[in-house]
Automatic annotation (TrEMBL):
GO annotations of cellular component type: mitochondrial inner membrane; nucleus
Keywords: Iron, Membrane, Metal-binding, Monooxygenase, Oxidoreductase, Ubiquinone biosynthesis
Iron among keywords: yes
Keyword Membrane tagged: yes
GO molecular function, one term: metal ion binding
Signal peptide: none
Transmembrane segments: none
A Pfam family per the record: COQ7
GO biological process: determination of adult lifespan; regulation of gene expression; regulation of reactive oxygen species metabolic process; ubiquinone biosynthetic process
Upper taxonomic lineage: Eukaryota, Metazoa, Chordata, Craniata, Vertebrata
Metabolic or biological pathway: Cofactor biosynthesis; ubiquinone biosynthesis
InterPro entries the UniProt entry points to: Ferritin-like, Ferritin-like_SF, Ubq_synth_Coq7
Protein name in UniProt: COQ7 protein
Length: 192
């Protein structure tokens, strides 16, 4: 540059002053992992049911999850958060859960959707409470993202119910097992 001035490239990083870095790291890491896992679940469901009557509905939900993952990829860079080391495991586990539930048919896939999205909506609500207690103004943008994604997940939950998720054989057992898995995934992805 002329005059010896240095050229500084624009950064997508967020100012780190005043933020509770450990809390933000955990939130962004686990949400990234969750959205990654959700993408893999829907990929598994589409592999089995993509050409069925419910395929377009699954694809619509998957498209929203792709947008969520894209945003959390951006937030990981902006806040300089490392991803969980468990991503390779969530890659396989998510796909197997999606394909496995879809092998039970349309209702099985929707039961999986209800179980996962109910867990994630509850998880996002807990994060919203945490950020509001910390400082709602300081975390305003992150709160907006999480609230929007929580609403999307709740919509997916409701779509699952509208498409007979509860009519799946052993629905309550399946739902409970999937939700226990979600709780374990959340716990591990926040920390590892």
């Amino acid at each position: 540059p002329a005059g010896g001035a240095s050229l500084r490239l624009c950064s997508t990083r967020v100012a780190q002053e005043g933020i509770n870095k450990p809390v933000i790291d955990r939130i962004i890491r686990v949400d990234h992992a969750g959205e990654y896992g959700a993408n893999r679940i829907y990929a598994g469901q589409m592999a089995v049911l993509g050409r069925s009557s419910v395929g377009p509905i699954i694809q619509q939900m998957w498209n929203q999850e792709k947008d969520h993952l894209k945003k959390f990829n951006e937030l990981m860079v902006a806040y300089r958060v490392r991803p969980t080391v468990l991503l390779p495991f969530w890659n396989v586990a998510g796909f197997v859960l999606g394909a496995g539930s879809a092998l039970l048919g349309r209702k099985g896939a929707m039961a999986c959707t209800v179980a996962v999205e109910e867990s994630i909506s509850e998880h996002y609500n807990n994060q919203i409470r945490t950020l509001v207690e910390e400082d709602p103004e300081k975390y305003k943008e992150l709160l907006q993202v999480i609230k929007q994604f929580r609403d999307d997940e709740q919509e997916h939950h409701d779509i699952g119910l509208e498409h007979d998720a509860e009519a799946t054989p052993a629905y309550s057992v399946l739902k409970t097992a999937i939700q226990l898995g979600c709780k374990a995934a959340i716990f591990l992805s926040e920390r590892i």
